[in-house]
Amino acid sequence: MLKINEIYLSIQGESSWAGLPCVFIRLTYCNLRCTYCDTEYAFYEGYDSQIDEIIETVKKYRCPLVEVTGGEPLVQKESLKLMEQLCDEGFEVLLETGGSLPIDEVDERVNIILDMKCPTSGMIKKNLYQNLDLLKKTDEVKFVIGSREDYDWAKNLINEFNLTQKCSILFSVVFGKLKPIELTEWIISDNLRVRFQLQMHKYIWDPAKKGV
Ligand code: SF4
What we know:
It is built from six helices and nine strands; from the N terminus they run βββαβαβββααβαβα. By secondary structure, the protein is of the alpha/beta class. It has one domain: TIM Barrel, CATH 3.20.20.70. The two termini are 25 Å apart. The structure holds iron/sulfur cluster. Iron/sulfur cluster binds next to loops. Iron/sulfur cluster (SF4) binds next to loops.
């Protein structure tokens, strides 16, 4: 049994899969409290559902790409089984995780989008750096950047863990806090091998809208 906050079809907004239709399974609960969190409604709200029921709901959307997100999906251990079964069913599965819980038991077929928390998030002490040694080529590390301090911190971490050799790296801004042009200029000036991205869904719909 899993506690589900919402399941919906939308456009993948922030990763190398950005722009593709994607079914989102948002799980309830999060062990973090980032300063800029835009999904606080997923901290407690939700309904209980069996894995088979979740997969039946997902199939109705007839979309091959599925993202398991939150909150923090890995808070609920059964999310591991959900992802495994989604892979068995032939879906391309993405996992968006906040980087504070171990990814070692996640099915190898899952593409992990690992969010490393920068200083602005207020959650930097929760980062589980051992996860960086477990990344596969198909995984991605995401940095949500709200200041120059965040940018420099991310740059140092990339060097320290040789991340550009391991997987793709995503840089985005804290929406409404740092201007996209500032971040892009820093990236260009340093010729940094990272992918700049906007949270696409926030420009298509009202940034406060749920279920997009
Ligand atoms: S990890 Fe995600 S859901 Fe949890 S508090 Fe941070 S931004 Fe919100």
